[in-house]
Design goal:
This protein has helices spanning 9-41, 45-73, 75-94, 99-127, 131-162, 167-170, 172-186, 201-219, 225-244, 258-288, 293-298, 301-321, 323-341, 350-376, 385-420, 425-454. With 479 residues, the chain is an all-alpha fold.
Amino acid sequence: MSTTMQPRRWRAMAVLAMVQLMIVIDNTVVNIALPSIRTDLGTSQAGLAWVVNGYLLTAGGLLLLGGRCADLLGRKRIFITGTAVFALGSLISGAAWNSGVLIAGRFVQGAGEALASPAALALIVVMFTTREERAKALGFWGGLAGLGATAGVLLSGVLVDLANWRWVFFINLPVAVVALVLCIRLVPDIPAQSGRRTLDLPGGLLVTSGLILVVNGLLRDGHHWGWFVAGFLLLALFALVEARSSDPMMPLRFFANRTRVTANLTTILLTSAMAAMFFMVTLYVQQVLGYSPLRSGLADVPFCVAFVPGMVLSTQLVTRFGTKAAICTGFVVSAAGMLLLARIDAQGSFWGQLLPATVVLALGLAIGLPALQNAALHGLSEADAGLGAGVQTSVQQLGSALGLAVLTMIALSHAAAARRTGLKVEEAVVSGYQLAFVVAAVVLVLGAALAAVIMTAERPHRGPSGEMAGAAERSPYRG
């Protein structure tokens, strides 16, 4: 599909970005509101965990299925449906009169994300086909993840301090309404592919159930290995079913592309390190430094500011040197930021410790994540754009859950050991964070090494018209 067929593609991109930013912000905006929710609704500690985990379980389990539904039923249709479902979940959550209703609303929100996010990313793949425009579009899209995570902390601090926790959900409603109205007018109605008519229900049920069990095992801090075993068995059975299916939900040849597979694997490493970092920094500034929710949010403003030039630099690196160079650069810069963050102490200095680390981390994430998304969609056709988008979004969710489980456990275990040596509580907690940040830096260096060694060093071939040969016209594994 030529870009000349989509004259309003950048306006459509703005609508898709509006919804995606709303979804990404909602992933973090709830965390700071949890103490207020507990006070207002009398929610137990287990209930608070389900307010977060219920969303992650539903989204993480259904993303791959949502991406394939977008390929089969039409991206615009699924995007509109997902946005409406997310808005409904926000309404239920904001109006909740008890913990059960709030958790149910979060499940609905997770289902909305699983439909809307991969459909939106698939629309970008088919709307932007030239190398330069796709790099810009995916660079901006990838930047929404990091930008939204920090903006969510800032927004939640403002809403919780100045209004009410319910507004962290109600604020989604006007955004969703505006986006739905604009979507009908501006987003192209790209028809579903006629080559596939079936959804491959056995494969869909197996991969969804497997992902839910694996994510649930991660969210339980790795203490219930039965969830992992059951989840991976279902995923292995899914692979067998797909190998025998005449019309599989995920053709196994999808994994024959080294660039795409390496990008998805290293995405897990990047998102695991960054999710744990966001979580522990929020705890550090509130519980150790004593920041209020509003001040905690304001402390993230430098991250948002530094993120913008990082996104621009990512696009330039991808365009001039290819995705491999941009990914390696982003990982190395992020690792340096993690090591700077490991310098924190119990007394804390925003200007001397947090600010330098925050700026470097923002630059690294802004360079690396958009390039990873570009590489994860390498060589995909229109017929399978939703599948690739669903895989990429799923591994981001899995990486986030993995990072929170493993790195947080490392921090807590080290803090407990340090406490037994006689350190004060705050000093022991900070020592745990320091170790976790060092481990995160090692993980990021490993990601850079994997990308450098395994990923194919190729730049997209430009034909006479400037379009990416093979990226939009055909699939390397189709047929």
